[in-house]
Amino acid sequence: MRDEALDAAEELLVDRGFRGFHMRDLAVRLGISRQTLYNEFAGKQGLASALVLRSTGRFLDEVEQALAGEDGLHAAWVAAVRTAITATSEDPLLKSLLTGDDGEGGDGLLPLITTESEPVVQAARDRAAGYLLRRWPDLDPDEVAVAAEVATRLTISHIVLPLHPAERVAEQIATVVERYLTRA
């Protein structure tokens, strides 16, 4: 039921924006009570958080595949960052997050990937660091965690406010990560 609720909520949020989304509409669509939704998600913001984390998981699957498709550390990070930027730019839910409530710059969901993004950053850091340590076990785990977090934060920053083409940003972030991890 949780996945069904998240699927329907994503459709409603993309269609109506955060301000136009109401838990009662979701409950009617699912044929359940609002209380059942509140028990599961603790409210509209909790539901939005669950959606963002689910979306993050999907993106991280794609990013991990991109990392695995390359032999070298630099090339792996270029592919991972480029994949993250491309995947998020094509995602209707993320577009809804970035444009605000209804395309008019509201901030109903934007904090979930900015000021309240700790769960997203942690999930991305942990998945990237875990992959890197499996692939390059000689790297220092503490340094890998730092590099993965910095890369995640830089990537999110570019997604929220893109200043350069994705390929350029991917090269820059990969260079920072590689230099940090391979320094003498």
Automatic annotation (TrEMBL):
Gene3D superfamilies: Tetracycline Repressor, domain 2 (1.10.357.10). The keyword Transcription applies. Keywords: DNA-binding, Transcription, Transcription regulation. Residues 22-41 bind DNA. Residues 1-59 form the HTH tetR-type domain. Pfam families: TetR_C_35, TetR_N. It comes from the Bacteria. PROSITE patterns: HTH_TETR_2. The keyword Transcription applies. InterPro entries: AlkX_C, Homeodomain-like_sf, HTH-type_TetR-like_transc_reg, HTH_TetR. This is TetR/AcrR family transcriptional regulator. It comes from Pseudonocardia acidicola.
